[in-house]
Design a protein that fits this description.
The protein is of the alpha/beta class. Helix content is 51%, strand content 12%. It has seven helices and four strands, in the order αβαβααβαααβ. Helix 2 runs parallel beside helix 4.
């Protein structure tokens, strides 16, 4: 953080965007698989947010964290991933209550199936099934997620905090 303060003089936005999936049913999941997903997906949000908070408070900045539709709905074979993404939602809501008085906003986005390395590895039949279940009949694009994050980070979203915005093309309607 000192490097950011020295080089840029301020921090306006923190986007927590680390994430991995290690899918397996709980009965087959190892403690190491559980912990690795929790550490990367959830503990990183704690570490980055806590470190950035003094600069964000000083500038009335904001935090946007990546959750997932799984964190809202659950998903078979993803107990670790779902727990981490649901944890981000709880973290977001609670931290927004703690730092709102300083003018800091805290929000999350919950993407559905977005074209990425993570979804690229999925079997084709699963991808086709997801497209059929999605109202818009397609997967999302990274730019569509980025535009929502940019909005939440902007002054145009100055009265939005503690919220989670779904970006899922109508998957869970």
């Amino acid at each position: 953080m000192q490097n950011i303060q020295t080089e840029y003089g301020r921090l306006d936005v923190l986007v927590n965007n680390a994430g991995i999936a290690k899918d397996r049913t709980l009965a087959k999941m190892t403690a190491e698989e559980w912990q690795r997903v929790i550490d990367i997906n959830l503990t990183s949000v704690f570490n980055c947010s806590k470190t950035a908070l003094p600069l964000l408070i000083a500038n009335q900045g904001n935090i946007v964290s990546m959750s997932s539709f799984s964190g809202l709905r659950g998903n078979f074979g993803q107990t670790n991933y779902t727990a981490s993404k649901a944890g981000i939602i709880g973290f977001t809501k609670t931290l927004s209550k703690e730092v709102g008085k300083f003018g800091v906003r805290v929000n999350a986005v919950a993407p559905g199936f977005i074209e990425s390395k993570m979804t690229e590895a999925m079997p084709e039949d699963v991808k086709m099934m997801v497209k059929k279940l999605t109202s818009l009949a397609r997967t999302g694009k990274p730019a569509e997620v980025a535009s929502v994050i940019a909005f939440l980070a902007s002054d145009e979203a100055s009265f939005i905090t503690g919220d989670v915005i779904n970006i899922d093309g109508g998957l869970w309607l």
